Amino acid sequence: MLVDAIEERIEALDRIDASVIVLCPLFSDERPPRRLAALVDWRSGGALSQALRADDDLAQLGVVRPFSHPRLGGAHVLTVGHGGTLDEAGLRVVATMLDDALGSFETKPYRVFAQWPARLPQLEPLAEVWLAPMLTHLVSSRLCIVGDASVLEPVHRLLLRAERRLVGKSEPFAFPSSFGTEAT
After folding, report:
1. What is the rounded CA–CA span in Å between residue 33 and residue 10?
2. Ramachandran angles phi, psi of 86, nearest 5°
3. Angle at alpha carbon of residue 87, lines to 85 and 92, rounded to 5°
4. Which residues contact 46 (CB under 8 A, 6 or more apart)?
5. I want to staple 5 with a disulfide (CB 3.0 to 4.6 A). Which of 79, 100, 101, 152 is the partner?
6. If you average pLDDT over every residue of the chain, what do you get?
7. If we measure between CA atoms, which residue out of 47, 38, 51 comes closest to residue 12?
8. 100-136: b or e for each residue (b if 16 or more CB lie within 10 Å)?
9. Cβ proximity of 16 and 69 under 8 Å
10. pLDDT over 60 (residue 104)
């Protein structure tokens, strides 16, 4: 698995197509959507905001649904409901639902855009729970973590530890020399 880090900018979603999976976190108390969800909303011409207004359950804890729009280039966008507050138990619910959803994808290389749920105060103890479905189902993919250095460095350390445990079970993780800077 190749791991990249990218900044939260609209250009991150410029070259998306059917080889891309976007894990789009939604919080029930965020209107309009923020962060990676805001980028998806912008790219889809506000269609994600419209979907949230039409379906209150979309952002509820553990709800994982596909979202599509012609302007998203056929990318596989999964909205991932995080509810209003997200604690460790809630994160485990989200991870279980992600595990089920990602298990339905073909085993092939994807470019995966994911974002750490910023509302969790302690990153490293919970990051493994959040990353587990991606590490299990997307081993031959390129994982693009969207965020800033405060999130990316602990995720980097976590993935290095996970690599040590998974040696022999999958391809090793590869970190570009530019880890922590925008991916191209």
Report:
1. 14
2. -125, 120
3. 120
4. none
5. 152
6. 76
7. 38
8. ebbeeeeeeebbbbbbbbbbbeebeebbeebbbbbbe
9. no
10. yes
Return d(Cα 118, Cα 26) in angstroms, integer: 11
Position 9, amino acid = R
Please report, for the chain, the start and end positions of each structural domain, with discontinuous segments joined by +: 2-166
| Sequential DSSP letters for 99-112 | HHHHTTS-SS--EE
Identify whether the C-beta of residue 126 lies closer than 8 Å to the C-beta of residue 93.
no
Place of tokens 């992600």: 98
How is residue 21 written in tokens?
A: 């999976």
Classified by CATH at the fold level, domain 2-166 comes out as Leucine Aminopeptidase, subunit E; domain 1 (3.40.220)
pLDDT confidence tier of residue 178, bands split at 50, 70 and 90:
very low
Amino acid identity of residue 178, one-letter, is S
Instruction: Give the whole-angstrom CA distance, residue 16 versus residue 56.
Output: 27
How many CB atoms lie under 10 A from the CB of residue 151?
18
Q: Is the pLDDT of residue 82 over 50?
A: yes
Side-chain-facing half-sphere of 98: CA atoms under 13 Å: 29
